[in-house]
Every structure is written in C-alpha cells, then in structure tokens.
C-alpha cells in the first residue's frame, strides 16, 4: 500500500510540472489557473494533482479528455503504469496467499484428501462432519499435530532446547517424574506427542491395555460410567492420567489395564507419552527407573491396588530368572574358553602332522634333509622357519633328484 501512495505522489508531481509547462488553465485537462480564487494555495494544488493522478492510475475515469500530444502521452503512460502495477500487485497477493497455504499445509493437516476418501467409501454424513470439524478446529486455532516434523531440520541440541522450553513445565507436573534428572526429562520431552480430541471422543476405555500416559494441555476430560453419560469427575488443564500403566509395577491389580472411561467434553489438547518411548529412555537411566517404580508402587498402595503377595511372587520369580541367566552366562563363558583351548590344540596337532608328512617325503626321495626339519625332529616339534612360516618353507629350494 505504501508503494501505491508513493507512485501516486510522484505521478501528481509530474502532472503539476506538465501543467506548468503547458500553461495553467490553457484547457480543461491541465491544472486550473492559480490566479483563480481558491487555486493559488499550495495544499489545494497538491490535493487536486493527487486526486487527478489517482483517477488516472486507478482507471476510474471521469477525467477531462486530453487535447494536446503531451497530454495524450501522459495519459497513455499512466494507463500502462496502472495496468502493470495492477498485474504486479495481483501477482504479489497470489504469491503471498500461496505461501501462506503452503506453510499451513506443512504445519497443519490438510483435510481435502481425507474428505475425498470418505466420499469415495461412502462414510456416513455424521462421521464425516466430525472429521471435518476436527480439521477445521486445528486450522482455526493453529494447532499442530506433528511437532517432530516441524523441528526436524534443527540441530539435535537446539531442537531439544526448544522442546524443553515449550513442554518441560508440563512434564514436571507428573508425580512420577518429579525430582528426576534434568537430562532424563529433556529426553522425555522430545518423546511427547501432541494429540487433539473432538467433543464426545473417548481417550481410553475401561479394560483397554494401557500403552500411553496423557497430560492435559487444554480442555476438559470427564471420567464417565460405562453408559457414557454419568460423570464421576472432570479433569482439567495440567492434570494427567495413565502414568501407572506405562510402568511395569509388580503386583499391580489392574494388570496395566485402564480402570476408567475417559471422554473429551470439548476439543481437548493432550500430550501423549508411549510406554515404548519411556522404556527406550529409561534403558539409559536405571536408577531413575527404580525411583519411578517405587513412586508408582506408593501410589498403588494408597489406592489399595497393590497385591503385596503377588508382588513378592513376581520379585522371587524375577530373581530366580536372573540367577538362571547368570548361570547360563557363566556356562557359556566356560564353553567358549574350552572351545578356544580345543581349537588351539587342534591347530597345533595339525601343524605337527603336516611337518611329519613333509619329513617323510624328504626321507622317501632320499634327499638330504634340511637342518630345520632335522632340528624339529630332534626337539619333537617344528623348528623356526618351517613350523611357523609356511611361506618360508615353500620358498626353500629342494635339491633336484636323479632324472
């Protein structure tokens, strides 16, 4: 817009200069004679020229017809400038809109393909409406579902710092992650996956196997009965659930299964952390894993959902299994040592047999026996230069026998 005003300003100056050159008031096209009342003031001269230039460049018309060649040339030049300027502006606007759509397509999911898929397979209109509303909710509220793809071009360390800056405070609220090492939390932050649930959608159902834990970022979730209507509790932003199911706690009566139905009351934004991702990170932090399991055990004890006898049985079974594994490892090491010793003895025996055969060949042909074979025979083992270097023995020249 600023460029348009600048162009009109300079075109106004050219119009006024041309009017002065041709003579003020000589015809209806040029600027009126400043001697007339009201046209002598500078502000009036500028506004009149600016208005006249705006009419020409916007191709609105309603301007006096030119009467001289100079006036015709000025009008033609302004019309060409207006056409080129309009084309440039439209092209720039199209480019801006295209770039905005491209950026949106990169950050936010496009529902066009999903919409075509649902029409192709004749998905019912109610479900189709829910899917489209979900996509529109993401685009209107600028919510991203794949932060990993967006940050993938950043260096690993810088990507971790961005993720920590955005999500660390959310993860720190979870009880089992409190007082954990900062490096552990940084790695867990990179594993968080944002998810958006539409109104009435179930996040989990009672009896499902728990493979993820959830942290509520925005929105509200309801703990409902099996009928889906009766509400026991409402969970808001900052709360979390499912953390026990992703930790294998011995004696857990629930057996890592969901104990309640949780449904979204409106559009809800959650962070999801899977059991596999947690296990991958904890493999490098065994002490943190033990601390988390102990915290989870304390939570289950408070909820009376920990079977102490089953826990003791699982611990005993685990210890017995670990003991058997240690014994198997020791036996495997012993077998490997024994195998290596037998292999060395086999190689030594094969080498001795090879030299005995060679010595017999020399004796059979009645050739003078080399000193190294004689020494090997006296010492009972191959000598230096023949027993340890087959190449050296092969390079020795045997005396030619009788033809």
Account of the protein in words:
It is elongated and about 130 Å long. α7 (about 155-170) crosses α8 (about 180-190). The termini are far apart. β4 (about 220-225) and β5 (about 230-235) form a beta hairpin. A 4-stranded antiparallel β-sheet has the order 1-8-3-6. It contains 13 helices and 8 strands. It has helices at about 1-20, 40-55, 70-105, 110-120, 125-140, 145-150, 155-170, 180-190, 275-280, 285-300, 310-365, 370-380, 390-395, and strands at about 195, 200-205, 210-220, 220-225, 230-235, 240, 260-265, 270-275. It has 3 domains: about 1-105, Helix Hairpins (Orthogonal Bundle), CATH 1.10.287; about 145-305, Sandwich (Jelly Rolls); about 320-395, no CATH class. Pfam families: CLZ, cNMP_binding, Ion_trans. It catalyses: Li(+)(in) = Li(+)(out); NH4(+)(in) = NH4(+)(out); K(+)(in) = K(+)(out); Cs(+)(in) = Cs(+)(out).
Strand order of the largest sheet: 1-8-3-6
Major sheet characteristics:
4 strands, antiparallel
The CATH superfamily label of the largest domain reads Jelly Rolls
Q: Helix coverage percent of residues?
A: 55-70%
Distance between the termini: 111 Å
- The share of residues in extended strands comes to 5-15%
User: Any guess at the CATH architecture of the largest domain?
Assistant: Sandwich
Q: At the third CATH level, what is the topology name of the largest domain?
A: Jelly Rolls
Region (Disordered): 366-403
Domain Cyclic nucleotide-binding: 176-282
Coiled coil: 303-352
Membrane topology: Multi-pass membrane protein
């Amino acid at each position: 817009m600023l460029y348009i005003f600048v162009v009109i300003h300079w075109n106004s100056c050219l119009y006024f200069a041309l009017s002065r050159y041709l003579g003020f008031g000589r015809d209806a096209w040029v600027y009126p004679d400043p001697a007339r009342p009201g046209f002598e003031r500078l502000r009036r001269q500028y506004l009149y020229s600016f208005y006249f230039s705006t009419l020409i460049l916007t191709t609105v018309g309603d301007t006096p017809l030119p009467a001289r060649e100079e006036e015709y040339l000025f009008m033609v030049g302004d019309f060409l400038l207006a056409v080129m300027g309009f084309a440039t502006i439209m092209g720039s606007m199209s480019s801006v809109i295209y770039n905005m759509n491209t950026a949106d397509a990169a950050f936010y999911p496009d529902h066009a393909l999903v919409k075509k898929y649902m029409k192709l397979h004749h998905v019912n209109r109610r479900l189709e409406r829910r899917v489209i509303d979900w996509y529109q909710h993401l685009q209107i509220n600028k919510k991203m579902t794949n932060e990993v793809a967006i940050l993938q071009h950043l260096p690993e360390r810088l990507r971790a710092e961005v993720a920590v800056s955005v999500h660390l405070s959310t993860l720190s609220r979870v009880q089992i992650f409190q007082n954990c090492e900062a490096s552990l939390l940084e790695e867990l932050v990179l594993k968080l996956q944002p998810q958006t649930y539409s109104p009435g959608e179930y996040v989990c159902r009672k009896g499902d196997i728990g493979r993820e834990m959830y942290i509520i970022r925005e929105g509200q979730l309801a703990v409902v009965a099996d009928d889906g209507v009766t509400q026991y509790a409402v969970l808001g932003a900052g709360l979390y659930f499912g953390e026990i199911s992703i930790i294998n706690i011995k004696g857990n009566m629930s057996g890592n299964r969901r104990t309640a139905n949780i449904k979204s009351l409106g559009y809800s934004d959650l962070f999801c952390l899977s059991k596999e991702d947690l296990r991958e990170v904890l493999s490098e932090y065994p002490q943190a894993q033990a601390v988390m399991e102990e915290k989870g055990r304390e939570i289950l004890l408070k909820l009376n959902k920990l079977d102490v006898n089953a826990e003791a049985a699982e611990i005993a079974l685990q210890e017995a299994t670990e003991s058997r594994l240690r014994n198997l490892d020791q036996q495997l090491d012993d077998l490997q040592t024994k195998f290596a010793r037998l292999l060395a003895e086999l190689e030594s025996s094969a080498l001795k047999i090879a030299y005995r055969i060679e010595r017999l060949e020399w004796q059979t042909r009645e050739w003078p026996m080399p000193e190294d074979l004689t020494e090997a025979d006296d010492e009972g083992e191959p000598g230096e230069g023949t027993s340890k270097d087959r190449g050296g023995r092969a390079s020795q020249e045997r005396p030619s026998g009788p033809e």
